[in-house]
TrEMBL record:
Keywords: 2Fe-2S, DNA-binding, Iron, Iron-sulfur, Metal-binding, Transcription, Transcription regulation. The keyword NADP does not apply. PANTHER family: REDOX-CYCLING DRUG-SENSING TRANSCRIPTIONAL ACTIVATOR SOXR, REDOX-SENSITIVE TRANSCRIPTIONAL ACTIVATOR SOXR. It comes from the Bacteria. Pfam families: MerR (PF00376), MerR-DNA-bind (PF09278). PROSITE patterns: HTH_MERR_1, HTH_MERR_2. The keyword Ligase does not apply. GO terms for molecular function: 2 iron, 2 sulfur cluster binding; DNA binding; DNA-binding transcription factor activity; metal ion binding. Transmembrane segments: none annotated. This is Redox-sensitive transcriptional activator SoxR.
Amino acid sequence: MRSPAPPPPETPLPSSAEVTRWLSIGELATRSGVAVSALHFYEAKGLIESTRTSGNQRRFLPVTLRYIAIIKAAQRTGIALEDIKAWLQPYQSGRKLSSSEWARMSAAWRDQLNARIELLTRLRDELDGCIGCGCLSLAHCPLRNPGDALGRQGAGARLLERPLGTAYPQD
Ligand code: FES
């Protein structure tokens, strides 16, 4: 499930006079707790941006730490990198994310999170029952899936993969 496209940013780009501090990649790694190699990966994927010194060393705005925190949190909850990128890209180059923008971003991800929570809850609660996979290996499979009737509806574990929001069939 993809989230909707992000709205345009509310805050302007900072002027060069407003930028008083730059971080090296080592400082960014130390403060964020993310390995330098992962920061290179994020940059290559367009999730964070840097500028270069005359000696070709990367320099990052401090707000990059906030983006990294968002990326880490979103990744932990299983949000796809393309989705994270789509939402963060309009705010790159040092724009600060306002609380209302963060609220819209998290609301856009809420449906995906709720879907994941429901699937994980099913795995936890239903994996010791018949999941309609066609194996007919449990004592109650004949009740839930007599003669593998569910297999005629399509492939996969038909009960485990049923549409979100539908209840597990009762006896
Ligand atoms: S658990 Fe596989 S068909 Fe019931």
